[in-house]
């Protein structure tokens, strides 16, 4: 595991040399390939060393973060062409990747907090440094302060746990029971703000819309999943309080997901619509984790991975449209099928994954989550039905408004060009399901056993 | 400070600088309270010539204000020492006397609620004098505070320090006043560390003075006193990054150096079960980070309207600037190598 850390650290001097933009991106692809070939063991922690480990959850999330970082660099090709501080941009991306890699792979809970906070700084730099509109200042402030407001009580909680248990190793936490209400709130609140849950979600539409394409991709792809990962790790030693109080968060996030899905229909900005759909998906993830089922656990993990891929892909497509028409508004971006019919294929594939149509990975996640939530309470059937229905609704709304219809009369001409990397996202979407076939097969076996 | 005095043709002030250092040593290492008082008086007397400059009316007024407030505090301190000696047999008075002695020392330091002179005076001093005021002048009152403090009173003072330091800086545009309010806030952290252990105070104080030194020397070299000056000039990329890193480090954000003292103090706060106080520490530090980020907008945004002709000539100091950025970023990681 240190080998990947050193590979990333030594890519930093490479970012500052001349004409190394594509080399860095290729090396990130290479690192993804190397990381995929680790010996994967589902049932336990593997590759343990003094301070790092790998679990099935960490493995998937680290893989996702390396993948999205390499795609971020590919999508920001215009920075390289226009020579807009791309050296520092590459440094930012690699630094962010190091922080994310370390977040998911350290054994110590305090170090997890340290890198969790540290990953905010390069994100803030990306949003304010390379964003497109002047509103990005306010967006950066919202991002930083919402997240910090949640995570400072998390620091208090972690240090309290250390003083009580004299250990911070994540693996040993499952042997303890710290069932205190205040500790529970302080530990969970940070991750709920990060996820985001409905009432504290306000930073997400701002930050996702104002960020450049790379910032949006990493935010939607991985930064939201940091919250999910934290919840998955931290709930183990709080089980009794969880059983008593989790219904609050499930209800807030499911009803909130319903409201957010309805709000998606009112959006005019493409990126805003995709951002709100992220909140709706994450609301189901929160619901799934909070019910404390095994199906919920697995379903939320699968939905996190698939949503990461799908959402980043959609942000990249929205940026492709933005680069050509210089607008993200649905009024101007209409009738694109007349100009870029191949692009409409990618829009359709990604939006159908977003609405959890077969055979995408989102479908597997949503089915597992629906199972777990309905097993918790039958009434949640109504909410889940509405959320799934509306997610199909707004995905189709986005697709048909962008692709069909007559194009905007004010367009003169633009560059019709097709980037082939989106293909790789789709391949990843499907291949995550079938390639590691053995791994997922074991998943099914275990699911059936339980 | 030495280089500043030597290069600005003010070597007659070197004498007063040495006496300043010795006065602190007298105050700290004395066996009786009288010795402490004498050290404080010599401190005051030797700091006044350092800050007064008879050619500048603002400087004269500033040094007069400093003299008045500090001598009031010293006289109060002397009076309380004398009362303590004469009422030695009556232990019921311990509470009141310790409160009064602590108040006079807090006024010497510029801590709330006796802080009103501090932003005023800081506005009238140059950057290097500010550095002495914010770091060295706090040493002897703090150590004297650690000899005889009243825990409940000090906890109340800490809360006032934190709140005033964070809320007071929200409406300021002058960089000196902003650093003054941040200094008041950090005084809150330092007073708490005194209550735990003097070693811990020393650790926090050293890291705080190192961060303040990096920041003040950057502002001194750029000759900047107000926030709008940050947006006008043509800063080189490394200077911008240094500014960004230093302010975020002072705010206590990971992964920078400034996170470590705050983390250790929160550890001790929670060991001693001060839960609500910890919450106040955290939330006020959020407000402080807000106004730091307002200052460093100029370094976040890569292209903004700047005057092409206002070039900063900082080639000779680039090594130190880069070194200080490197230290701020990597000290957390390097510190793990020290303790192994």
Automatic annotation (TrEMBL), chain A:
Keyword annotations from UniProtKB, A to Z: Electron transport, Membrane, Mitochondrion, NAD, Respiratory chain, Translocase, Transmembrane, Transmembrane helix, Transport, Ubiquinone
Segments passing through the bilayer: 20-38, 50-73, 85-104, 110-131, 143-162, 182-204, 216-235, 247-266, 273-295, 301-322, 381-402, 414-434
Biological process according to GO: ATP synthesis coupled electron transport; electron transport coupled proton transport
EC assignment: 7.1.1.2
GO cellular component: mitochondrial membrane
Domain NADH:ubiquinone oxidoreductase chain 4 N-terminal per the UniProt entry, residue ranges: 1-103
Membrane topology: Multi-pass membrane protein
Pfam families membership: Oxidored_q5_N (PF01059), Proton_antipo_M (PF00361)
Subcellular location: Mitochondrion membrane
Keyword presence, Cytoplasm: no
NADH:quinone oxidoreductase/Mrp antiporter transmembrane domain mapped to chain residues: 108-390
InterPro entries xrefs: NADH4_N, NADH_UbQ_OxRdtase, ND/Mrp_TM
Catalytic activity: a ubiquinone + NADH + 5 H(+)(in) = a ubiquinol + NAD(+) + 4 H(+)(out)
Enzyme class: translocase
Highest rank taxon of the organism: Eukaryota
Function: Core subunit of the mitochondrial membrane respiratory chain NADH dehydrogenase (Complex I) that is believed to belong to the minimal assembly required for catalysis. Complex I functions in the transfer of electrons from NADH to the respiratory chain. The immediate electron acceptor for the enzyme is believed to be ubiquinone. Core subunit of the mitochondrial membrane respiratory chain NADH dehydrogenase (Complex I) which catalyzes electron transfer from NADH through the respiratory chain, using ubiquinone as an electron acceptor. Essential for the catalytic activity and assembly of complex I.
Family recorded in the similarity comment: Belongs to the complex I subunit 4 family.
UniProt name for this protein: NADH-ubiquinone oxidoreductase chain 4
Organism for this UniProt entry: Bombyx mandarina
Gene this chain is encoded by: ND4
UniProtKB/TrEMBL annotation, chain B:
Keyword terms, alphabetized: Electron transport, Membrane, Mitochondrion, Mitochondrion inner membrane, NAD, Respiratory chain, Translocase, Transmembrane, Transmembrane helix, Transport, Ubiquinone
GO biological process, one term: mitochondrial electron transport, NADH to ubiquinone
Family: Belongs to the complex I subunit 2 family.
EC number: 7.1.1.2
Intracellular or extracellular location(s): Mitochondrion inner membrane
Gene: nad2
The organism's place on the tree of life at top rank: Eukaryota
Transmembrane segments: 66-87, 99-118, 153-171, 178-196, 202-222, 243-268, 274-297, 318-339
Official protein name in the record: NADH-ubiquinone oxidoreductase chain 2
Residue ranges occupied by any NADH:quinone oxidoreductase/Mrp antiporter transmembrane domain in the UniProt entry: 30-287
Task of the protein: Core subunit of the mitochondrial membrane respiratory chain NADH dehydrogenase (Complex I) which catalyzes electron transfer from NADH through the respiratory chain, using ubiquinone as an electron acceptor. Essential for the catalytic activity and assembly of complex I. Core subunit of the mitochondrial membrane respiratory chain NADH dehydrogenase (Complex I) that is believed to belong to the minimal assembly required for catalysis. Complex I functions in the transfer of electrons from NADH to the respiratory chain. The immediate electron acceptor for the enzyme is believed to be ubiquinone.
Catalysis: reaction(s): a ubiquinone + NADH + 5 H(+)(in) = a ubiquinol + NAD(+) + 4 H(+)(out)
Membrane topology reported for the UniProt record: Multi-pass membrane protein
Species whose genome carries this gene: Bombyx mandarina
GO MF terms, alphabetically ordered: NADH dehydrogenase (ubiquinone) activity
Entry GO terms, CC: mitochondrial inner membrane
Subcellular location, principal: mitochondrion
């Amino acid at each position: 595991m240190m080998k990947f850390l050193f590979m990333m650290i030594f890519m930093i001097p490479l970012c500052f040399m001349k004409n190394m933009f594509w080399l860095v991106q290729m090396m990130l692809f290479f690192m993804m390939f190397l990381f995929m070939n680790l010996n994967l063991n589902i049932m336990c922690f593997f590759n343990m060393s003094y301070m790092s480990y790998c679990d099935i959850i960490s493995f998937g999330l680290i893989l996702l973060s390396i993948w999205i970082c390499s795609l971020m660099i590919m999508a920001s090709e215009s920075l390289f062409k226009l020579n807009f501080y791309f050296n520092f941009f590459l440094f930012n991306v690699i630094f962010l990747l190091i922080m994310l890699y370390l977040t998911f792979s350290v054994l110590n809970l305090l170090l997890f907090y340290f890198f969790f906070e540290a990953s905010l700084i390069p994100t803030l730099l990306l949003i304010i440094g390379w964003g497109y509109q002047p509103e990005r200042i306010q967006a950066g402030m919202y991002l930083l302060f919402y997240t910090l407001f949640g995570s400072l009580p998390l620091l208090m909680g972690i240090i309290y746990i250390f003083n009580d248990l004299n250990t911070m190793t994540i693996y040993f936490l499952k042997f303890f029971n710290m069932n205190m209400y205040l500790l529970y709130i302080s530990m969970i609140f940070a991750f709920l703000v990060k996820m985001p849950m409905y009432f504290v979600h306000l930073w997400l539409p701002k930050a996702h819309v104002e960020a450049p394409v790379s910032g949006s991709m990493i935010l939607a792809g991985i930064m939201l999943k940091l919250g999910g990962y934290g919840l998955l790790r931290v709930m183990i030693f709080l089980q009794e309080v969880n059983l008593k109080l989790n219904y609050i968060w499930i209800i807030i996030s499911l009803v909130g997901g319903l409201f957010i899905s309805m709000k998606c229909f009112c959006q005019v900005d493409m990126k805003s619509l995709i951002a709100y759909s992220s909140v709706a998906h994450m609301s189901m993830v929160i619901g799934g984790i909070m019910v404390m089922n095994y199906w919920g656990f697995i379903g939320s993990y699968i939905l996190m991975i698939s949503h990461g891929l799908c959402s980043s892909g959609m942000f990249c497509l929205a940026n492709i449209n933005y680069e050509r028409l210089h607008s993200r508004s649905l009024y101007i971006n209409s009738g694109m099928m007349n100009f870029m019919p191949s692009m409409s294929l990618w829009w359709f594939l990604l939006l159908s994954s977003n609405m959890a149509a077969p055979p995408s990975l989102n479908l597997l996640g949503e089915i597992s989550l629906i199972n777990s939530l309905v097993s918790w309470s039958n009434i949640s059937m109504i909410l889940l039905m509405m959320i799934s229905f509306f997610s199909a609704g707004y995905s189709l709304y986005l697709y048909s408004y962008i692709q069909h219809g007559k194009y905007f009369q004010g367009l003169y001409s633009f560059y019709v060009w097709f980037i082939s990397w989106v293909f790789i996202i789709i391949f990843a979407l499907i291949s995550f399901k079938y390639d590691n076939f053995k791994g997922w097969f074991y998943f099914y076996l275990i699911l059936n056993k339980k | 400070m030495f280089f500043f005095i030597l290069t600005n043709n003010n070597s007659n002030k070197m004498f007063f600088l040495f006496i300043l250092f010795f006065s602190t040593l007298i105050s700290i290492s004395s066996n009786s309270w009288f010795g402490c008082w004498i050290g404080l008086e010599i401190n005051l007397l030797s700091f006044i010539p350092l800050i007064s400059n008879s050619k500048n009316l603002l400087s004269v007024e500033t040094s007069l204000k400093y003299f008045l407030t500090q001598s009031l505090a010293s006289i109060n301190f002397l009076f309380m020492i004398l009362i303590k000696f004469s009422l030695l047999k009556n232990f019921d008075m311990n509470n009141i006397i310790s409160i009064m002695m602590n108040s006079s020392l807090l006024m010497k330091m510029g801590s709330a609620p006796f802080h009103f002179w501090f932003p005023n005076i800081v506005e009238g001093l140059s950057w290097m004098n500010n550095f002495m005021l914010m770091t060295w002048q706090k040493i002897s009152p703090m150590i004297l505070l650690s000899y005889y403090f009243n825990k409940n009173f000090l906890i109340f003072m800490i809360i006032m320090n934190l709140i005033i330091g964070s809320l007071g800086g929200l409406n300021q545009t002058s960089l000196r006043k902003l650093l003054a309010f941040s200094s008041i806030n950090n005084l809150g952290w330092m007073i708490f560390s005194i209550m735990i252990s003097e070693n811990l105070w020393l650790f926090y104080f050293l890291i705080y003075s190192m961060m303040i030194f990096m920041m003040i020397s950057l502002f001194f070299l750029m000759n900047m006193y107000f926030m709008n000056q940050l947006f006008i000039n043509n800063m080189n990329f490394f200077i911008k990054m240094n500014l960004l890193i230093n302010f975020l480090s002072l705010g206590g954000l990971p992964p920078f150096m400034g996170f470590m003292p705050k983390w250790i103090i929160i550890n001790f706060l929670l060991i001693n079960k001060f839960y609500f106080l910890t919450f106040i520490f955290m939330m006020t530090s959020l407000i402080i980070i807000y106004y730091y980020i307002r200052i460093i907008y100029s370094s976040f945004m890569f292209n903004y309207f700047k005057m092409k002709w206002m070039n900063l000539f900082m080639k000779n100091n680039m090594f130190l600037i880069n070194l200080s950025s490197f230290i701020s970023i990597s000290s957390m990681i390097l510190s793990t190598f020290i303790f192994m």
